[in-house]
Write a structure and sequence with these properties.
The protein is mainly β. It has one domain: Jelly Rolls, CATH 2.60.120.10. This is Mannose-6-phosphate isomerase-like protein (Cupin superfamily). InterPro entries: RmlC-like_jellyroll, RmlC_Cupin_sf.
Length: 139
């Protein structure tokens, strides 16, 4: 039989839960590791909304659409690309690639962040006003 790992034991291994409602009303359920890797289940609001345009310097992100649909915007070699993703679709974003997501109402996605990050006090997350310009989002 599997042994239950308590929250205290998980924290001793460097795993922290973080559950939040974002300003755009998304609900995020994260497991964060001290090495910068993480897993996040994101549930869209009933209205749908853009997230925040950003990029990472060290981490790669894998997005998986479970239900609903999303728009995935990226700046790839100074070219603006937007794609619609539906259930079962995935998208991988490499370091230094600005990206943003629009989650249609009631969409559910999973995000896995991984890479060769050096643990620091600051997260590997940098805003991308350039991408905000393309999607018409005010910073």
């Amino acid at each position: 039989m599997n042994k239950h790992i308590s929250l205290k034991e998980a924290k001793a291994y460097g795993i922290e839960p973080l559950f939040e409602e974002m300003p755009n009303k998304e609900k995020r359920f994260r497991l964060l590791a001290k090495d910068g890797s993480s897993y996040c289940r994101t549930e869209a609001s009933d209205k749908g909304a853009w997230q925040n345009s950003h990029f990472h310097k060290q981490m790669t992100e894998l997005y998986v659409v479970q239900s609903g649909s999303i728009l995935f915007a990226i700046l790839e070699r100074d070219t603006f690309v937007i794609k619609e993703l539906i259930p079962g679709d995935t998208m991988t974003v490499s370091p230094y690639c600005p990206h943003n997501l629009y989650l249609h109402p009631d969409a559910v996605i999973h995000t896995i962040k991984y890479g060769d990050a050096t643990p620091t006090a600051e997260p590997d997350w940098y805003p991308s006003p350039e991408l905000d310009h393309y999607i018409g989002k005010q910073s």
